[in-house]
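Subject: complex prediction, re-run

Hi both,

The earlier run crashed halfway through, so I resubmitted it with identical inputs.
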Amino acid sequence: MDLRVNGKVRAGREGLTVTGLLEDLQIHPQRVAVQLNGAILKREQFPEVVLKDGDTVEIITFMAGGMGEGGAA
Amino acid sequence: MMSQDLLRLGGREFRSRLIVGTGKYADHGTMQRAHEASGAEIVTVAVRRVNLDRTQDSLLNYIDEARFLLLPNTAGCYTAEDAIRYARLGREVGLSNWVKLEVIGDDKTLFPDTEGLVAATRVLVKEGFVVLPYTNDDVVVAKKLEDAGAAAVMPLGAPIGSGLGIRNPYNIRLILEAVRIPVIVDAGVGTASDAAIAMELGCDGVLMNTAIAGAKDPVLMATAMRHAVEAGRLAYLAGRIPKKLYATASSPLEGMIG
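This time it finished cleanly. Structure:
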């Protein structure tokens, strides 16, 4: 199946959970937020939510920035 | 005396009245040293996509969260709806309900869209956020933000990154007289005297990023800003003398050699 992760198409295996995706990407779940098809997930949902073909996933964290900078995701 | 003069904000107390950003530094190491030198206890961060190609070192490796409160901002948001979404995402990332709320109205001046700002403040306060809104130096908007439940108002001194200083100190004074919540000057500071002026006016704090990060020596400027904020605060508490047109001798005339 194909997922769109942070704007890029990425292949995912059947049954992949959000936690599984973060592990594949070597991203520690502690300091990220995940938005799935426009809805923000709670951290405790990460192991339960199974991704489907065509899902749009945004993985968000804190980056350098003071104020006013553009480039919103 | 300074040890008891705490900034009370969002139900917490801070010794430092200087809030600093994380943007525009040449590298994370310089940022870390500047944060240290500033004495700040709150640092602002942007809410953005994780970089999946991993060419960048994570910002969070350079901020000791035991010492600094991370304050996510909604920089880059042009609608109340977007700002609310970024605030919610920031809460999930940081597990804290604090947000520096920005709703930008114009990309040239980066002036706030105050209508969207008040609307977003109202929604986020209902959701339990500690909302710190970046606003213009307008007393009417400041009162609306207070009524909407903002934890502070953060009027600009001048446009973001302009370094023009406190362009309208009288408007800042009007805001100080009109609201009961803390007033923190956010944006416009260029050098130490600008920060001191904000504090001498009676502001509760100053937030800055470019003035430090963009200086030739950011660590030295951070030190200057720490001293400026403290000096301005002390001068405010001490109560300055009134301005007068003519001289008043400070030495007695009595005892002069006849």
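The radius of gyration of chain B is 20 Å.

- K.
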